[in-house]
Design a protein that fits this description.
The complex is a heterodimer of chains A (249) and B (382).
Chain A (H helix, E strand, L loop, with lengths): L1 H4 L2 E12 L2 E12 L3 E5 L6 H8 L7 E6 L2 E2 L5 H6 L2 E3 L12 H6 L17 H14 L14 H14 L4 E5 L7 H16 L3 E5 L3 H7 L2 E6 L2 E6 L1 H6 L1 H8 L2
Parallel strand pairs in A: 3-8, 3-9, 6-7, 7-8
Antiparallel strand pairs in A: 1-2, 1-4, 4-5, 9-10
Chain B lengths: L1 H6 L8 H7 L7 H13 L2 H4 L3 H27 L7 H17 L4 H23 L4 H21 L1 H4 L5 E2 L9 H27 L2 H11 L1 H6 L4 H27 L1 E2 L1 H4 L2 H14 L6 H20 L4 H16 L4 H12 L11 H18 L5 H8 L1
Antiparallel strand pairs in B: 1-2
Helix pairs in contact in B: 2-18, 3-10, 5-10, 5-13, 5-15, 5-16, 6-7, 6-13, 7-13, 10-13, 11-13, 15-16, 15-17, 16-17
The chains are: A alpha/beta (249), B mainly alpha (382).
Chain lengths: 249, 382
């Protein structure tokens, strides 16, 4: 199966994190593939978001390793991981509420050297690129609005746009379909598919099964902090372990 | 689409008057000109002040304004509220005082030398303090002041302890009114320096990243912003400018006592000034310093050395939180927006504007539709 899916982009080895006595992530060894839309599913409380936060450096894992493109990124600062090309969005949509929609994108660009921090933020070429991305997600008419003034669905798109502005090789989406209406879910799915076709790798965490089954090339199923199954969407749906975890059969 | 975004005026917040208040005019030089105008207006005070007392009150208010603006470079831009900035003010004064007493160097060179040392020291302190956020950071900064107070009170052989440290005046020949006048202009120059520093930072990519940290630090990190380094840089600049203010204060006042140089209450009042004026505004801390500074002097004059001025300050703080949580300048901006010609509800709209709005609405609906009420969604998730 590994032959079919190609190179591994992101890999964890024995990743563990406990809070008090709760093993939120428990010895998780996983693989996610480059150029694919990878999925991570699991019932509520199965440790998906903690896993996600350990991978992106927001939480320090107790044990184990994270490899991104064969580099050990365990315990790296989150900003360094982002700069290595691994972008992310948050479960409950997070934008910079008092910055304009355009500035929400512009802050995501890394200055080439520290002195560039003294320059002005609105570099023409960057503004143009930001407008291109905003047009792509359908927010270009809102660029001067403050992010807190746009709707929740638009904030979700804005968050994705900001993640793209950083120019990542791989984007991790934490519940992109959470709390948004079906039309927007469809729109996000189309965007992810298109961007993937252009070469961006995705890892999507979601418990909306329908959304995931249509979208993902490869799905890892989590239960109690560790993967219990991995394979194509069709494969994992047939897996008795998965059915048990979800339905408690 | 470019067309729509260019003309959709309703989305643009505020008129040019509001932007001037913010110091964020669309022009490159507008806000710099605004700073010059404000400084020029303030420069008339020595002519208006009828007596040396009023002149010295002006010096104190300007000192507060410099201090509060320097504070705002950290507090306003990053959202890290430091109640311990007076530690760096006090260190600046004592550093300057000790250098002037024990060496032959020029008094103002001593101010800069002390400020550089304090600035470097603040990087060490900040490296530790900035590891925590929110209320924990506030408590750590208060602790820094209390540590300094104890050190400077106990280390009598060097600091003079509670007996005080007398700093020789840089212009020994000047009479008292002249002395106040000279220092008024020196502090005004300093105000120019901090306002320009704030503006330069505010309009740079550095400032934009600091604001991102203020809005959501985790999110900023996840987008690749090196938050720890940038916070530390802002803290260092803020403390350096604060230390300069402290050094000049030492030369002006000429007598240092740890209980005043490391006064936690004054430190909190500086933060209050910035909050009262409006931390998102270039001139916010200045306005706050003028309001609170004058009020403090007034209460002192009328009620003497009672604690009533503390009660009054508390009441002022309550009023601000209740009626102008974003500061008086935000309130003023709101009023201008409501009364100003460009923002009345019956403003005439051009056909192009209406069309642009309709386009925008149609697009927004395409994103939102159908059904599912996005606003309720949002409320639920909070």
């Amino acid at each position: 199966m590994t032959e079919e899916l190609g190179a591994v982009a992101l890999r964890t080895e024995g990743l563990s994190k406990s809070f008090g006595g709760v093993h939120a992530v428990d010895n998780a060894t996983t693989e996610f593939y480059a150029g694919r839309i990878n999925g991570l599913i699991g019932p509520n409380g199965s440790g998906k978001t903690t896993f996600f936060n350990c991978v992106t450096g927001m939480i320090r894992p107790d044990a184990g390793h994270v490899f991104y493109r064969d580099r050990d990124i365990t315990r790296w600062q989150p900003h360094r991981i982002a700069r290595a090309g691994l972008g992310r969005t948050f479960q409950l949509c997070r934008v910079f509420p008092r910055l304009t929609v355009l500035d929400n994108l512009l802050v995501a660009v890394h200055p080439p050297h520290p002195l560039a921090y003294l320059g002005r933020p609105r570099v023409a070429s960057l503004v143009e690129r930001a407008r291109g991305i905003l047009a792509r997600v359908g927010l270009d008419h809102l660029e001067t609005a403050e992010a807190r003034d746009v709707s929740y669905g638009q904030q979700k798109l804005l968050e994705l746009a900001a993640a793209l502005m950083a120019g990542p090789d791989m984007v991790m989406l934490d519940e992109p379909a959470g709390g948004v209406n079906p039309a927007l879910i469809e729109r996000i799915a189309v965007l992810v598919t298109e961007l993937n076709a252009e070469g961006t790798t995705f890892l999507v965490v979601e418990h909306n099964m329908e959304f995931m089954m249509n979208l993902c090339d490869h799905v890892v199923v989590f239960d109690r902090g560790a993967p219990i199954a991995a394979g194509s969407a069709a494969e994992v749906q047939q897996n008795p372990l998965v059915l048990e975890a979800y339905l408690g059969v | 689409m470019r067309n729509a975004s260019d003309t959709s005026t309703p989305l643009r917040r505020g008129s040019s008057a509001v932007q001037a208040l913010r110091g964020a005019g669309s022009g490159r030089l507008g806000p710099f000109a605004a700073i010059l105008v404000v400084v020029a207006v303030l420069a008339t005070w020595p002519l208006l002040a009828g007596n040396p007392y009023m002149l010295s009150a002006g010096v104190i208010v300007l000192n507060f304004a410099v201090f509060a603006t320097a504070w705002n470079l950290m507090g306003g831009l990053t959202g890290y509220v430091s109640l311990g900035h007076i530690a760096f003010f006090g260190l600046g004064s004592y550093g300057t005082g000790l250098l002037v007493i024990h060496s032959e160097i020029n008094a103002f060179v001593a101010v800069m030398a002390a400020a550089v040392v304090v600035g470097l020291l603040s990087l060490l302190v900040g490296w530790a303090a900035l590891r925590v956020r929110g209320a924990s950071f506030v408590i750590v900064t208060i602790a820094i002041v209390l540590v300094m107070l104890l050190v400077f009170q106990s280390w009598r052989s060097v600091t003079g302890g509670s007996t005080g440290l007398v700093v020789p005046r840089p212009f020994p020949d000047l009479l008292r009114p002249e002395h106040h006048r000279v220092f008024f202009y020196i502090f005004l120059g300093l105000l120019l320096l901090v306002l320009v520093s704030y503006l330069v930072v505010d309009r740079s990519r550095f400032g934009q990243a600091l604001k991102a940290i203020r809005e959501d630090e985790d999110k900023a990190q996840s987008l690749g912003i090196p938050t720890a380094m940038l916070k530390l840089a802002a803290f260092g600049i803020s403390c350096f400018l604060t230390a300069i203010a402290g050094g000049v204060y030492a030369l002006w006042f000429g007598d240092l006592d740890p209980i005043f140089q490391f006064d936690v209450v004054l430190s909190a009042q500086i933060a209050l000034m910035a909050l009262l004026g409006g931390v998102r505004y270039l001139f916010g801390p200045l306005v706050g310093a003028i309001v609170v500074g004058s009020a403090l002097e007034y209460f002192l004059l009328n009620f003497g050395e009672t604690q009533f001025h503390l009660v009054a300050t508390g009441l002022l703080l309550v009023a601000v939180v209740l009626f102008a949580p974003d500061g008086v300048l935000a309130l003023a901006a709101q009023l201008i927006r409501r009364l100003g010609p460009s923002a009345t509800s019956i403003r005439e709209e051009s056909a192009a504007e209406v069309r642009a709005q309709q386009d925008a609405r149609a697009l927004a609906e395409r994103v939102e539709e159908p059904g599912a009420d996005a606003t309720t969604d949002r409320e639920d998730r909070r």
